[in-house]
């Protein structure tokens, strides 16, 4: 792996060599998003009374700084920094530089892996979702996940150019565990993580197809998954499956994990609606969830979104729990 990284770095350096500095200086632009939600939930079990969690309001905000320039040889180089609007630990969500050209795209810094970026899951338009969404913010439930990412880490990632709709990506992260609260940038504390993804995205006469195969290996274990979406007219139907080995580094329960989701969405003008179902067997039990989502574009970058959800969790070691909830609010993209 080290030889590959050194060779890749040398190729990029050669591409830059001999170029005059006539390109425009990098200027940062500001973007990001803000989500403000209000909702309620009702659940029985897990030591929680029937009134559910007292978390009627939730929010999530990020501010993004992006900048790039194009060199005389046509190569684009830029940077992205993503700041969390509210956090109790790491203020930086991601920070990385990228290089784009005919050779593909390189990224280096603290960012998601290729597997996480390329994984396809069932369509969903609401604020809660059943697959690695925000349901656990509103109720005490095991979070279903078919793309079990290692999160933002210090890593290097390469994406191939798109060829007839196909694209591949690979990532390598060292053992520094940059998404851990104890990270100090010097002492490694985890496992090296290798990630890979393959996707196909195609648009045809009246329909579209998206396929993905992704996975990560963390020293002594791995996870892998598959996803597919088919769009016909205003409808999109799809789903995904993920398997995590019992000795994978992020698997705290030490159990094999198998999860899947399926869903359908319909879009008409500014309105979208979706219905999705998710299930996961986590070794000591299983959980299933349903989410009905609604999104309406009020204007450029302004969307009203709502979810009505239900879940049922069976557990051999902890009390069973089931319940439902409803969430509504506004998302701003700027």
From TrEMBL:
Recorded GO CC terms: membrane
Report domain Porin positions. Answer: 7-314
Signal peptide interval: 1-22
Under the heading InterPro entries, the entry gives: Gram_neg_porin_domain (IPR033900), Porin_dom_sf (IPR023614)
The Gene Ontology terms for molecular function here are: porin activity
**Pfam families, from UniProt?**
Porin_4
Keywords per UniProt: Signal
Q: Which organism is it from?
A: Thalassospira xianhensis MCCC 1A02616
Name of protein: Porin
Spell out where the chain crosses the membrane.
Answer: none
